């Protein structure tokens, strides 16, 4: 009787989990629960082929009237929109495969975490009625910093996406696109968020 | 505690210790990104913490300062040693469990998704088992390992089950779509996984492997095969997607899976 009951309990557990697969999962929206989501794994790895968010950055021209003022407010005026100085460059982790990564892979782990921030931002955008409110979210602030950390590569002529000379640019902006997984991406068509022009930080090159 | 349970507990401790050591050494390399001048500076996280109770917020804010953060990492490395030697204590596991949670919160809940979840699950199971044993429950350790095993089995079962509901996995197209997005990708134009027949077979094999964990739970010889296949499966995930922590986090749960399988197999034999 005891062994039958144990087997029944285990079988019931997996039946409940199976039933759960047919139900739409709850999203952890509360800030506390979001921070404690390690306790609520859903285990649905790579299950759904949906849309893939991507992060893009570009430089903006400083030659436009007014753009020499290093103030974001000055160039957000619709009449004085800055001119793109570079094409949109994709920020996406790619690395050369190494056996050592099996036991030590911090850079890629960090890059994958930063990609996940895009999913967090998309979720935050879905929760907000006012588009401008999303800029106050942590996910937005972090993504802006992630995007900014890739500016050095964009301004390096030796980089595949680099533009030269970059000294003329004084502003930059980032963009988030969302497109079906595996489909070609068009920033113009798939953009779901484009940041305000941001003053270009000082970036030194060796 | 039976001899087999003791052996599987030792193995779990050692494998969890290896998994944690890898995570700890990687975390040390991430301190620059977490510094006040780094991309993930703690000042940016303030909106997340605004609703936390003041005491907890103050505590976390203190812990995330450079010196306490480094001391906590050093303590973690020290606490891993008894695990690697297979002689952990409840207090040592408690330190690791708590610091694992603190680190997860620093990364807004999780740094490496599933591997964080499974590591926390393994530490919870180990800690729970050791605590119950300390409190005098002779089978406490077994219950702790069962907890780990149920989560591990669920992870495979749910991951395989949910794929059955998506046509991209049933027709094999999901394979190339996901692998093309891997950090080491995209797949070459002539890669075998681009062949629709091969891709369909591989997807079916993945789903079959993941769902077959239930067979392993009631048939121990297959559970041993499942664990061997699992090592290859997770290595493949690392090879294409760069998820090295997943390999170690899941392998650490295999002794628990074997223990649960031994228990359930014997129950099946006893059942009329």
How would you characterize this protein structure?
The complex is a heterodimer of chains A (206) and B (272). By secondary structure, chain A is of the alpha+beta class. Chain A is 35% helix and 14% strand. In chain A, strands 1, 2, 3, 4 and 5 form a five-stranded antiparallel β-sheet that branches. In chain A, helix 4 packs across helix 5 (138-149). The longest helix of chain A has 22 residues, at 106-127. Chain A is elongated. In chain B, 43% of the residues are buried. Chain B has helices spanning 3-29, 31-34, 46-49, 54-63, 66-84, 90-106, 114-134, 140-164, 167-170, 173-180, 196-211, 213-218, 220-241, 244-251, 254-270. By secondary structure, chain B is mainly alpha-helical. At the A-B interface, helix 1, helix 2, helix 4 and helix 5 of A face helix 1, helix 3, helix 6, helix 7 and helix 8 of B.
Rounded radius of gyration of chain A (Å): 22 Å
Largest interface: A-B, 62 and 75 residues
Largest sheet of chain B: none
Q: Could you report the average pLDDT of chain A, rounded to the nearest whole number?
A: 78
Report the span from N to C terminus of chain B: 27 Å
**What is the H-and-E element order of chain B?**
HHHHHHHHHHHHHHH
What's the average pLDDT of chain B?
A: 93
Give the proportion of residues in helices of chain B: over 70%
The main sheet of chain A comes to:
5 strands, antiparallel
Structural class of chain B: mainly alpha
Number of helices of chain B: 15
Count the strands of chain A? 5
Approximately how much beta-strand content do the residues of chain A carry? 5-15%
Low-confidence sequence ranges of chain B = none
Q: In one word, what is the shape of chain A?
A: elongated
Sum up the structure in keywords.
heterodimer, A: 206 residues, alpha+beta, 5-stranded antiparallel β-sheet, 7 helices, 5 strands, 14% strand, elongated, B: 272 residues, mainly alpha
